[in-house]
Amino acid sequence: MASDNEQKLDELSRKLGVQEDELRRATERAELAEKNLKSIEDELQMVGENMKQLESSAEKAVEREEKLKDKILSIKQKFKAAEGRFEYGEMNITKLNQRIDDIEDEIYREKLKIKKCADELGETFDDMLTNY
Q1: Residue 77 counted as domain residue
Q2: Is pLDDT above 80 for 6?
Q3: Which domain holds residue 14?
């Protein structure tokens, strides 16, 4: 019975040794897993911070886009107003050119009238000189 008990004790001691080895390996794996988990948590935290920075950058980009859209709209309105002034100016220039042409024609007609009067006056003086 004592030898049976010793055998059982030896067998239990071996099993205990095996279990202790397995426990050590399991503990080492758990520690390694915890380190990996800590590393992953750190990476996740960095990713979270990067996401916050990206969100902030995206918000700023959207704000800049809105400001630029407003600026483009303002420039378009100014351009349309400038186009209107340009067309009005062109119309005025056309009217002024027409008026200048009319005045030049009128001046030419008046010059012809003056020349006719001067010729008649010259003829009248010549007639007066020859007849009187």
Answers
A1: yes
A2: yes
A3: 1-97
Give me the DSSP letters along the chain.
-HHHHHHHHHHHHHHHHHHHHHHHHHHHHHHHHHHHHHHHHHHHHHHHHHHHHHHHHHHHHHHHHHHHHHHHHHHHHHHHHHHHHHHHHHHHHHHHHHHHHHHHHHHHHHHHHHHHHHHHHHHHHHHHHHH-
Indicate the pLDDT class of residue 5, thresholds 50, 70 and 90.
confident
**How do residues 99-108 score in pLDDT, each as one tens digit?**
999 999 999 9
Q: Which two tokens stand for residue 110?
A: 């008046």
What's the token pair of residue 94?
A: 């056309």
Is residue 132, in this structure, part of any structural domain at all? Answer: no
Is residue 119, in this structure, part of any structural domain at all? no
Instruction: Give the model confidence (pLDDT) of 41-61 as tens digits.
Output: 999 999 999 999 999 999 999
Q: Is the pTM of this model over 0.85?
A: no
Residue burial 52-80, b: 16+ Cβ < 10 Å; e: rest: eeeeeeeeeeeeeeeeeeeeeeeeeeeee
Number of domains in the chain: 1
